[in-house]
Amino acid sequence: MTKPRKPGKSRTVARLAAVQAAYEMEVAGAPADPVLRAFVTQRWNLVETAKAVEEEEGERPDLQEPDSGLMTSLVRAMVDRRDDLDAMINGALAEGWTTERLELLLLIILRAGACEMLTEPQVPAKVIISEYVDIARSFFSEGEPKMVNGVLDRLARTLRPGDLAPREAPAG
């Protein structure tokens, strides 16, 4: 008997998988199709992964399949819109920062968040920002998650005016 899918969880896993696939593509210089195929058939083959974990640790993990449609569309859109995404991110970075100065994984997290903001209008900007800040926290422990929050917030205010509450003026 299979467990029912947790609706939001498969999208969360898809976002993480999209970031991992895009990172692999950048590092290896690989095209999208073989990397996506490997992610769907090998890396996210949960039956085999669960068996391996169960054999090693003695208990079966609660794993969630990624929403492969979201993962695939994000990766393809990041490839197709890379220059536009980088230009948008450059415009949202603090003064003195450019995409060239960013660590590759941080840049890919920002690309994925910006891409989802462009391609998934039904997903609230607040959800997108929160999801990618959480992904950044999975990999970074310094100021990077705050940077992701700030950059995606600025992009959301440009790409999705009215989607976020107005910023309050500082007291003083």
> Mean pLDDT, as a whole number?
84
Our estimate of the beta-strand percent is under 5%
Number of strands: 0
Give me the CATH architecture, please: Orthogonal Bundle
Q: Specify the biggest β-sheet.
A: none
Q: What's the shape?
A: globular
Q: Could you write a compact summary of the structure shown?
A:
The chain is an all-alpha fold and 172 residues long. The protein has eight helices and no strands.
Name the descriptors.
N-utilizing Substance Protein B Homolog, Chain A, single chain, 172 residues
Task: Characterise this structure.
By secondary structure, this protein is mostly helical. It has one domain: N-utilizing Substance Protein B Homolog, Chain A. Helix content is 68%, strand content 0%. The protein contains 8 helices and no strands. The chain is globular and about 50 Å long.
How would you summarize the topology of this molecule?
Layout: H1 7-28, H2 32-43, H3 46-57, H4 68-80, H5 82-92, H6 104-119, H7 125-139, H8 144-159
